[in-house]
Every structure is written in structure tokens, then in C-alpha cells.
């Protein structure tokens, strides 16, 4: 009799698990179908990109983006939509930069540059000096003040082409952009030119943030990026003739901080309203393009998550928020401000997902979490496999959600195919026409599916899985 009861129980549990899996699969199908046939992300991105444009922190366009996205979230019938004030830096590029290589006096070749975000301007007449090329800070140190003083330091370390993850390739060389001016100034350099963070050879300079750390104002030197094709040209010319000079002029300026906002909307949870799930991207962008991939795509995909939940009548158990962060590109003020207020209010953020890797075909997610929570995630992998979006790995998440990290919560980042991303990243080519509608919508659906799972099942409360005793 006991054996019969046990067998019946096993069958019932098995059937229950099958029904639950079928239910999840059916909801996945509804999410993807709705996103691909009745989505709104592409329309929102069209407006952000073509009607507003580049959204540098502190700019008029950034404030227009705040107003527009709040207005669109208001239309969704969420529980609440609001603006979270945050002070942000205001750096302006000014008139277009100009540069050339001078091989002999009066013989020049114009090249493509752009000021790096946060850089000072050159003097009004520009800067012209001989060039010293290095690939690492160690090479710079080996040259020393005697060979660097009075010259322009040219950092020419390419992204490593044989790395399949282009983000790893980017991480391997971005320090020359961010810290290059600080290091060069130590040895008396008068300026810095940095090879653009780009895997292909083209004529587009790529901007990005740089720092002076605590360098006094009178020791700071101007810093600019040069296109990859022109970096190759400059390198070749300086190797042939050490008498080659480089000239550049830029008019950028750092102004006082100004007030801006994170844009936040939420659907209140029906069972666990004090457990928060957030999904977001950063609303600011660089100013050369219109920020379609970085990070207009992440913004509209995140908005679409809440819209899809509403359209499909999925009433979340937990409170789900969309957060459109301001100032990721040159300060991370929005992400830090959100985390600071969440801590003050003692809000329990169990899961946070960010999309900030472009609007290309989604491949999966990276998860910043403990082993128990990652094991839980792996149990959901089969649900994404029919959509060919089942690359799950432990790793980073997103810069804006990073400050929310705790031992027991889960942070995640959407991981699209990255092979083309750095063709557009921080360049004038980051425009709406570079985004594929279907790829964008697949990303929005994928984010919605993962948010749905975390809302339904929560996170694994075990912070440290029990050790197996010998």
C-alpha cells in the first residue's frame, strides 16, 4: 500500500512539473510572438534616435529624452512613474576637432580625430609636436621624461582580434584611453592621441570617457582619439621618419554639474511587493551619433519588458521596475544614485537586469551571483534553447546595476552577439539605421522572459550551498 502511495505521489509530482514547464513554455511563446508581431521598442528607438539624437549627460537632448520616456511610460498604465533627481557632469565638445600629420614643413595630411570625453581643450592655436608611439604604460615608463617631454604621446594598442569576445578585446586596451593622459603627463607630454577602440579599419574616431584623477589643472593635457586607419598611417609615418609632427585642435570644456533624472516606472507586485526586480539601460549617450545601440536599444528594450507584461495580462508577484539610468557614460551617477536611495529605503532588490551591449541578436545572459543562484538559472536554460538564446555564464552584469550587488541577489546582463558592436560604439556611426528591428525585438522578448521567470520563482535564498562532507 505504501509503495502504491509513493508511486502515485511520484506520478503527481512529475505531472505537476510537466504542467509547470508547459505553462512557462506557453508564456515564452506568447512573449516572443507579441514582441515580434506587436512590439513597440523599434518605434520608441526611432523617436529617441531621429527626433532627439545624441544624449550627452547634462545636455538639452538628454533632458528631452527624460521627458519623452517618462511620457511614454505614463501611457502604459503602470502603477507608478516618476523622476529621480541626480546631479550629473556637463562636458561639451564645442566646434569640430581638426588634426593633421606634418611630414615636412608645409606638407600635411588631414586625419580624423575627436576629443575624449572629459578632456580639456587645446590652446586656441592648437598643439603641434613630435610624436612618440607606445602600446603600453610600461613602454612609456621605459622611455622616461627625457624622450617624452614636449611631445605628443600616441597610444597605438589595437583591440586583440583573436579574442572571440569583443568585450574582452575592448577591456584589454581601454585603459590607454581612460588613463592615457594621466600617465603621459607624468613625463611632460603636451598631448595624447589614442587609437580608437574599434576592431575594423575605418575613418571614424571613437570617443569615450577619460580621467585626470587628481592631476592639478595646470598639469592636464588634451586627449583625443584617432580613427584606426589614421592610426595605422601615423604609425607608419613615424617609423619612417622620426621628424614627423602631429597637430590637433579641440574646443571642449567641462562645465559645472547640472541636475538631471533617472526615469523610473513600476508595476506593483501582487504577493511580494517588497521584493524588487529591475530592468534597465542608460538614457545618456555620447554625442557623435544618436546613441541607437549605446544605449538607446537597452532603454527601449527595458521599457518594452513592462509593456509586454501589461499587454499579456501577466500580473507580477513581485514589484517590477524599469529604470532608465542617466550618466552611465561619463560618471555612473544615475546607477549610484538609484542604489543609494534603495539602500536608504531598505528596498530588497532580488534581481536586476541591464541591457547595455547593443541591439544585436541576443545570445544569452551573464550572471553575477552565487553558485546556488547560478544553478537555478541553469535549470531554466532549456526554455531559451528553442530560441537559440541559451548562452548562460557567470560573469559581469551591467555598470548601472552593479552598485546593487549583494551576496544573495542576482545581477544579469543581456549578451547579444558582440562581433559588430565596436564598429559603432561611441562613434558617429551609432545611428538608428544600424539597428535591426527583429534583433532589437528578440532582445526585448528575451529580457521579458527572464524577468518573468524571476518574478514567478524568485531567487535561491541559499547564499552558500552546503559543503559535502567526506
Description:
The protein has 470 residues and is of the alpha/beta class. It has two domains: 29-89 and 256-457, Aminopeptidase (3-Layer(aba) Sandwich), CATH 3.40.630.10; 94-251, Glucose Oxidase, domain 1. The chain is built from 13 helices and 16 strands. It has helices at residues 2-37, 41-52, 60-74, 137-148, 166-171, 175-185, 228-240, 292-311, 333-344, 371-378, 381-384, 421-424, 437-457, and strands at 80-92, 98-104, 107-111, 113-115, 127-134, 152-155, 191-195, 223-226, 245-249, 253-267, 272-282, 318-325, 348-354, 362-368, 391-394, 410-416. The strands form two sheets. The chain has an eight-stranded mixed sheet with strand order 1-10-12-11-13-16-14-15, sandwiched between helices. The protein has an eight-stranded mixed sheet with strand order 3-2-9-5-6-7-8-4. Helix 8 links the parallel strand 11 (272-282) and strand 12 (318-325). Helix 1 (2-37) packs antiparallel against helix 13, helix 2 (41-52) packs antiparallel against helix 8 and helix 8 crosses helix 13. The longest helix is centred in the first third of the chain and has 36 residues, at 2-37. It is elongated. The chain starts with a helix and ends in a 13-residue tail after the last helix. Mean pLDDT is 94; it is low at 3-19 and 463-470.
Amino acid at each position: 500500500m505504501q509503495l502504491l502511495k509513493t508511486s502515485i505521489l511520484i506520478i503527481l509530482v512529475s505531472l505537476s512539473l510537466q504542467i509547470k514547464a508547459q505553462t512557462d513554455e506557453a508564456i515564452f511563446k506568447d512573449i516572443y510572438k507579441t514582441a515580434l508581431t506587436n512590439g513597440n521598442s523599434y518605434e520608441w528607438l526611432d523617436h529617441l534616435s531621429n527626433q532627439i539624437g545624441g544624449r550627452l549627460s547634462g545636455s538639452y537632448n538628454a533632458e528631452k529624452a527624460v521627458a519623452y520616456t517618462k511620457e511614454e511610460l505614463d501611457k502604459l498604465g503602470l502603477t507608478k512613474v516618476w523622476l529621480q533627481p541626480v546631479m550629473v557632469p556637463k562636458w561639451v565638445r564645442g566646434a569640430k576637432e581638426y588634426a593633421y600629420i606634418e611630414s615636412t614643413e608645409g606638407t600635411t595630411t588631414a586625419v580624423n580625430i575627436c576629443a575624449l570625453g572629459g578632456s580639456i581643450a587645446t590652446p586656441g592655436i592648437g598643439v603641434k609636436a613630435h610624436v612618440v608611439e607606445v602600446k603600453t604604460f610600461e613602454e612609456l615608463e621605459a622611455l622616461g621624461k627625457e624622450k617624452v617631454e614636449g611631445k605628443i604621446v600616441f597610444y597605438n594598442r589595437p583591440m586583440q582580434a583573436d579574442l572571440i569576445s569583443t568585450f574582452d578585446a575592448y577591456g584589454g586596451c581601454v585603459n590607454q584611453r581612460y588613463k592615457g593622459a594621466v600617465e603621459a603627463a607624468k613625463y611632460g607630454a603636451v598631448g595624447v592621441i589614442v587609437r580608437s577602440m574599434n576592431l575594423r579599419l575605418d575613418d571614424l574616431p571613437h570617443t569615450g570617457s577619460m580621467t585626470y584623477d587628481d592631476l592639478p589643472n595646470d598639469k592636464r593635457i588634451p586627449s583625443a582619439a584617432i580613427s584606426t586607419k589614421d592610426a595605422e598611417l601615423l604609425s607608419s609615418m613615424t617609423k619612417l621618419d622620426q621628424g614627423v609632427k602631429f597637430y590637433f585642435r579641440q574646443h571642449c570644456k567641462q562645465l559645472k554639474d547640472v541636475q538631471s533624472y533617472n526615469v523610473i516606472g513600476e508595476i506593483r507586485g501582487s504577493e511580494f511587493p517588497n521584493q524588487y526586480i529591475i530592468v534597465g539601460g542608460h538614457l545618456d549617450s555620447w554625442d557623435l551619433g544618436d546613441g541607437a545601440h549605446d544605449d538607446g536599444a537597452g532603454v527601449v528594450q527595458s521599457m518594452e519588458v513592462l509593456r509586454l507584461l501589461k499587454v499579456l495580462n501577466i500580473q507580477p508577484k513581485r514589484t517590477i521596475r524599469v529604470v532608465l539610468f542617466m550618466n552611465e557614460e561619463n560618471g555612473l551617477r544615475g546607477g549610484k544614485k538609484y542604489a543609494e536611495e534603495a539602500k536608504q529605503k531598505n528596498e530588497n532588490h532580488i534581481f536586476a537586469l541591464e541591457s547595455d551591449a547593443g541591439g544585436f541578436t541576443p545570445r544569452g545572459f551573464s550572471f553575477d551571483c552565487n553558485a546556488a543562484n547560478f544553478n537555478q538559472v541553469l535549470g531554466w536554460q532549456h526554455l531559451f534553447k528553442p530560441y537559440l538564446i541559451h548562452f548562460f555564464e557567470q560573469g559581469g552584469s551591467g555598470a548601472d546595476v552593479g552598485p546593487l550587488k549583494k551576496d544573495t541577489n542576482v545581477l544579469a546582463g543581456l549578451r547579444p552577439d558582440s562581433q559588430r558592436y565596436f564598429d559603432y560604439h561611441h562613434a558617429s556611426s551609432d545611428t538608428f539605421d544600424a539597428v535591426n528591428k527583429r534583433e532589437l525585438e528578440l532582445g526585448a522578448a528575451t529580457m521579458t522572459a527572464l524577468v518573468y521567470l524571476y518574478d514567478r520563482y524568485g531567487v535561491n535564498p541559499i547564499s552558500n550551498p552546503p559543503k559535502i562532507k567526506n
